[in-house]
Amino acid sequence: MDCNLAHILNIPDEILLNIFTKFTNIDVLYSLVGIHEKFDRIAYDSKFTEIIDLTALLPDGSYGSLEDDIINRFYTVLLPRIHNNVKSLTVQASSFLNIISMNSYPNLHMLTLHNLGYNVASHIFTENSPFVYCYKHQITHLVMTIKDDLRIRLMEVAMSQIYGAISMWFSKLQYISVDGHAHISYTRRILSGLSPSRCYFSGVVYLSIKIHDLDDCFCLLDGGLRQLEALCVQLDNLHFSRMTINDENSFIDGNYLTNDITCHMARLREFTFDIISDNTSINVYPKPSSDDIRRTFIDNGYHADCYIDYSDMNDTIGRCHIYSLPFTMKSIQRVTSKFPGGTFTNVRRLRILDFERSFENSFFVKISQSFPLLHLLSVSNTIERLEKPSHRAMKNKDTSSVIEFPNLMEIYLVDVHIDYVEQFLCCLNTRLPSLSTLHAHYEQLLTVTKNFTRNETRINCAKVKDVYLSEGMDLIGYADCDLFS
Predict the structure, then answer these.
(1) Cβ burial, residue 185 (10 Å; 0-12/13-18/19+)
(2) What is the DSSP letter of 381?
(3) What percent of the chain is predicted at pLDDT more than 90?
(4) DSSP state of 335
(5) Is a pLDDT exceeding 90 seen at residue 357?
């Protein structure tokens, strides 16, 4: 026996246990099991086996798998020995059915599935799946992140199936959180398949959900959420709304949330929201201002902010964006040039768009300051800028005026005027030290980079490896390469 190992084995179990708790339970199980029975006995303690997370948080905020040798060892050696102890399990959704088919988990109550796609969801959330059959009266906490590359139509089908399944069959659920695709708008109702006569949402105390419209919201407010204490809802929009709010055609405000939404949930202690009333017809005068809407939140005890954007072409049509503060979600609904700014340190994904007004330099300064940890930015604006970014950069030689997005890894510059490609790729305007994925219009990219020879664009593209090229809105090519090689 190795001398050092012999000395370690002489250390009392209680001291070794305290030492091992300084490491992650995954490291302890992977590294120590199988070396000596003393280590096995300590490693199999409930401190190390009740909560198992086989995923890794990536720099862009998404979740990937642990190294293959770690995963293989858990599947073949460790999980068969500790499966009875596991109370909380976090895995890639693609491997979940294999995991539960090899072992039973009689004490599993908390489940997190990352990168859930349509095909996997259609196998997991069906009445005859082993997961539903064995765990429908056992799971109390269910957390899911949705796969990023899922097409909108497939995503909508998958989400409808998931919500229908968990509302009908999972009788013990208390905590539900679904995250993903917050930067994409649903095109149809998601909760239309819920059965009012058989719904197990009555025991849920925490619900975080993204839905399409108020009809989806009203599905949740039929009296079934009797125990709900915290509701986090992302409502895509109220498109061309003619709904009557506070006896008038207007925007959703604090009075409406109180009188028509939260009044149905007597136990509710926390309500987090991010809602857009879009293309809303306003038939009152004077038209409501941002201060008017903001005052209704204050009067009803909400911590929230908002901004209103009336159309330049028809000032009776408006858009109102309301959101809770402090803002805790990872994504925020798309913002326009009227966005007032603020502090949104949790937001990782953002879409900025405006169909009537250009984005000028002050707006991009506001965005960079308001969203300091942004990982993904999508820009949609085909309006030519009033002040060309290249002209401004030439006039202002002070490098302190350069806008920086230090954590931005992916940017969409597809549905834009060429001025915005210039704004983000030229280092005289913007610094993107972490950019690795670029989506752009092929001809615009050639022009701005001068056929990939322009030095001012080389710096921001230095780390770019994934390039998605489009013509119009159609993807025409993909390159895994150095743009300037």
Answers:
(1) middle
(2) B
(3) 43
(4) B
(5) yes
